[in-house]
Amino acid sequence: MADEIRNVVIMGAGCAGLTAAIYTGRANLKPLVLEGHEPGGQLSMTTLVENFPGWPEGIQGPVLVDNMHKQAERFGAEFRVGQVSAANLSERPFVLTVGKEQIKTRSLIIASGASARWLGLPSERALIGHGVSSCATCDGFFFRDKEVAVIGGGDSAMEEALFLTRFASRVTLIHRRDGFRASKIMLDRAKTHEKIHFMPNTVVEEVMDVQAKEVTALKLRNVFTGKVWDFPTSAMFLGIGHVPNAAMFQGTLETDENGYLKTRDYVHTGVPGVFACGDVADRRYRQAITASGTGCMAAIEVEKFLEETGH
Ligand code: NAP
Description:
Helices cover about 25% and strands about 30% of the residues. By secondary structure, it is of the alpha/beta class. The chain folds into two domains: about 5-115 and about 240-310, FAD/NAD(P)-binding domain (3-Layer(bba) Sandwich), CATH 3.50.50; about 120-240, FAD/NAD(P)-binding domain (3-Layer(bba) Sandwich). The longest helix is centred in the last third of the chain and has 21 residues, at about 290-310. The radius of gyration is 21 Å and the shape is elongated. The two termini are about 20 Å apart. The protein binds NADP nicotinamide-adenine-dinucleotide phosphate. The site of NADP nicotinamide-adenine-dinucleotide phosphate (NAP) has 18 residues, from helix 5.
């Protein structure tokens, strides 16, 4: 219905958005959840999640988000697949453009997440969850006593490499040049770690073996000599940064120098009635549980906001 005004629209159906949907659903606010291009968020791309409290044996990432989805539906959340292309937040009700539709809402929770940056190789894509990962915390455990590779030269790559030394027998850090963006302290820590070996000026051309559905080697190329060779490894971890899905709010909401939404008091943006939670506003923790936690906070703030403004 074109004239319908929603109480709350939640942009994004990862951990943050789904938790916000459960809470606002239980508060009888009939939330509308807009599922973007990655329904389920980053968890839908992982395999076993072993650090979400309450699952002593672990739970598959896609199952976890599917459970949250069902839980939200049980409390009256409505789901719609759609990408918000524009948001007018200058007055209330806010107006969101989704395809040809205009959705009016009294409050908005932005939980659009962040997407890992990938190299963009088809073989990389095919092996995500089978040895290709962008999350050492999630998947490092599976490579106990194995040799693994980390791609990148910033703090994320150093952090991933250092974390992986807890499990892997050897970590090779592959970077496309010999200068590093990483902070000196992180770089020093990685450089002096006995398990970490640096391979600068090198790029990944292909991940093998797609047929076998597991990572067995990387085809590498030295950017100076042009030499190409197969480098045996059991896993490839990407540490080349994340991209917050907040580009459409540039100029409307405050973002930091990396494009993440800035919040105060945990989940408040600069616009009353607009809240941000999960990875779109968090470049530091980026965990399923922290995303759920801030999703809960945003939902409680929405309730308070609607109460104070008389809906
Ligand atoms: P970043 O600093 O932007 O570094 C990204 C790295 O990935 C760079 O070395 C870049 O290479 C490389 N890269 C990007 N695209 C690539 C591609 N297509 N192929 C190969 N390599 C590619 O990102 P980040 O490491 O995620 O850090 C982001 C921010 O978070 C930084 O401010 C960082 O300090 C902060 N952070 C802090 C911590 C910590 O303090 N514990 C941990 C994580 C992140 P080039 O250098 O050649 O461009």
